[in-house]
């Protein structure tokens, strides 16, 4: 498959959650025409407004030039009509819920509309890129582009190579990563890749420690932040990612890798209670406008 670095001009981001918003902001800042799509127009409009507010705060803090923000806003296009924009794009990045069937369903619609040269990127944190490409009938141009939360801040981009991913597509993904200002690592397709497998293992053990009463959530997090120089503790990070997302990843790894990834009981209980982390207002912490505060955790029997 022949792909040139200059061929990527227009990007379609699917999904307007935290990751979709952040990815769209990053690609627009990098100078790509960025179409942002979701199934509901209201969510698209809300996401664009959120990006405008976030970049306005950066300008106010002196972390972004007003001219750069204006250019970025000009590159960002709300795209509720998928059929109107998909035929123009060179790169698709999906950031929709972590369900293989849903990803296949949405990306199949996009594949039917997009040019044959368009690269299909997935922000999945654990699902098989090889399976996704096979089910789409586009294994050679399917690649994992796993961003980290929040995408405008986090430097790492995990580029996941499926069994059928073309060499040129991998090189293109690396070129895009560098244009986005990211430092890429290349990981062969395997359950949980590198980062999710390591990250959820630490997070799950932190939950088991909390469950066993070893220490409070705040002190467990502080141990990793100060003792191991982690920028954020594993429980606070779980709140940011979403407890439901972490549960889905652990369940997948438990099936694919082994018993060490069995989800802790406390995680299942909190998800059942609707305590999903920052997005619901409470998880291992209570999330207010002032920031995270310690939350009471009641352990079941």
From TrEMBL:
Domain 3-hydroxyacyl-CoA dehydrogenase NAD binding: 10-189
Site (Important for catalytic activity): 146
GO annotation terms (biological process): fatty acid metabolic process
Source taxon at top rank: Bacteria
Domain 3-hydroxyacyl-CoA dehydrogenase C-terminal, chain residue ranges per copy: 192-287
Pfam family, one: 3HCDH
Protein residues bound to NAD(+): 15-20, 38, 98, 103, 125, 149, 279
Presence of keyword NAD: yes
Keyword flag Oxidoreductase: yes
GO molecular-function terms, A-Z: NAD+ binding; oxidoreductase activity, acting on the CH-OH group of donors, NAD or NADP as acceptor
Record's protein name: 3-hydroxybutyryl-CoA dehydrogenase
Organism field: Chondromyces crocatus
């Amino acid at each position: 498959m022949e792909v040139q670095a200059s061929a990527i001009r227009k990007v379609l981001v699917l999904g307007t959650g935290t990751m979709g918003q952040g990815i769209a902001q990053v690609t627009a800042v990098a100078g790509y025409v960025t179409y942002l799509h979701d199934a509901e127009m209201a969510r698209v409009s809300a996401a664009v407004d959120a990006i405008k507010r976030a970049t306005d705060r950066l300008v106010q803090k002196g972390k972004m030039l007003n001219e750069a923000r204006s250019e970025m806003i000009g590159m960002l296009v709300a795209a509720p009509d998928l059929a109107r924009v998909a035929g123009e794009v060179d790169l698709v990045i999906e950031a929709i819920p972590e369900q293989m069937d849903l990803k296949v369903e949405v990306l199949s619609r996009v594949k039917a509309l997009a040019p044959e040269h368009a690269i299909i990127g997935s922000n999945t944190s654990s699902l098989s890129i090889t399976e996704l490409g096979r089910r789409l009938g586009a294994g050679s141009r399917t690649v994992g582009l796993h961003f980290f939360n929040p995408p405008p801040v986090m430097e790492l981009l995990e580029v996941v190579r499926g069994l059928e991913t073309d060499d040129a597509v991998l090189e293109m993904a690396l070129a895009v990563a560098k244009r986005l200002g990211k430092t890429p690592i290349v990981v062969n397709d395997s359950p949980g890749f590198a980062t999710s497998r390591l990250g959820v293992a630490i997070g799950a053990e932190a939950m088991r420690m909390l469950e066993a009463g070893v220490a409070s959530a705040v002190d467990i997090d502080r141990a990793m932040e100060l003792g191991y120089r982690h920028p954020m503790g594993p429980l606070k990070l779980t709140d940011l990612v979403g407890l439901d997302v972490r549960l889905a990843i652990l369940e997948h790894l438990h099936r694919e890798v082994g018993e060490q990834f069995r989800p802790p009981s406390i995680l299942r209980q909190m998800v059942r209670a609707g305590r999903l982390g920052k997005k619901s207002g409470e998880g291992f912490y209570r999330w207010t406008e002032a920031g995270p505060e310690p939350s009471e955790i009641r352990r079941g029997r």
